[in-house]
Fold this sequence. Notes:
Radius of gyration: 24 Å
Largest sheet: 8 strands, mixed
Distance between the termini: 50 Å
Strand order of the largest sheet: 11-12-14-13-19-20-23-24
Strand content: 15-25%
Mean pLDDT: 94
Low-confidence stretches: 3-8
Amino acid sequence: MQNLTIAAEPLRFKIALDPTLSEPGQAVSGRLLIFMTAKTKPLDVIEPDFLNPEAVFVSGIEITNLEPGKSIEINPDVLSFPKSFSAAPAGGYQVMALLDTNHSYTYDGMGEGDLYSNVVKINLPIANTVQELILNEKVPGKTMAVPENVKFINFESPALSAFWGRPIIMKASVVLPPNYDKSKSETYPTVYNVHGYGGNHLGPLRGVSEMQVAMSAGKRPEMIYVYLNANNSLGHHVFADSANNGPWGRALTTELIPYLEKQFRMDAKVSGRFLTGHSSGGWSTLWLQVNYPDVFGGTWSTSPDPVDFHSFTGPDLTLSTPQNFFHGADGKPYNLIRDQGKDIMSFEEYARLERATGYYGGQLASFEAVFSPKGDDGQPMTLFDRDTGRIDPIVQKAWGKYDISRILQDNWKTLEPKLKGKIHIVVGTADTFHLDEAVRLLDAKLKALGSDAKIEYIEGRTHFDLYRDGLSDRIANEMYAIARPKAKIAATK
Length: 493
């Protein structure tokens, strides 16, 4: 690792582009991020640490037309997290620059085509010099071995294309069961799986080979799995129709699913279409089941994003006089991330980090892209002021139509017979993002309505270990029991 000059003034960086990374005269643009950490272990890359947010300084700024061999000087204090770089205590640090060329870092980190520098050492304080970081590496494209019986779908949606005024492609990975080709007539129940925030339709394929082995061995029923892609330029669109993202729910239910059912031997009926997903995928699938009860035969939604806006992981978004998004009336900050019972990161800290890393695709920006009206500038209206946490009452009111708990209560007379036996929610009591709190509120409301929804709390489980001990297999068997009530079901834990 290279050592840089010791100095003593507010930190400044000169960012240069290695000529070998771009054709002569071909400039690059994007979100320039600078990371700095006092961690002593030599690092190949530096990234935010959500379990120790104070450990990594992050600065972000938009740059345009940086040409090969030229440089730009950056003041990292203009927009930084958790505080200004100049406020960092004296000592040794590691620093790195990254150019997010397609504004996807906030959603899923470093990606194909991003440019980054070597990690270098500096010492603070610094005087009379600007430290240079050279963007001299490019993130390569990812390759993956595609399991057997996997088909990739690229479907041009008429509804979404009309909304955007350009072709919009819906992507999915279809996983066919091991014995699919042995018959020309047998149909299969179909599971529509929606990934969580930061994912796509390709990530789940890592576990497909193991799943197909379990199917072949009779430990798991043979079904068709459709891994949907819910990632777009504004983050995770959750398959909800919105003013900013377009009619994703309508496009799925009236366009993509009918198309798939013509291409593959799916059951093509309500009792053979199932939903499951985790986190943002958990919210997506519950939303789809509630809003399209005549399309789907049941959802198994795990650790869903807030399903009752009385607790949007802290703030109550149902009050006529809005709360502050960052803290309660007592001034105590709302915690967003916890680990082993310890509060790790507040909502305010998360919002400030997201603002530094970039506007496009962040978790909070994703919520606003789905739930908020479109502003006069053509962008999603922000729910809250990023500096003060003050909630905009007009935007909060607009969010109300996406409150699943409220939708169920207001429409229960119509929805009750259509949702009988169809709602299953599983969440850990130690969910990393406190998502169990909104689930409990929804649970109480459903019980009061007389619903037969099955809501399960797994003691001590977090957001990331919920599926330990065979939950996925159990869900598969519960689905199959509905689609094939006379079939013999494999025993699960």
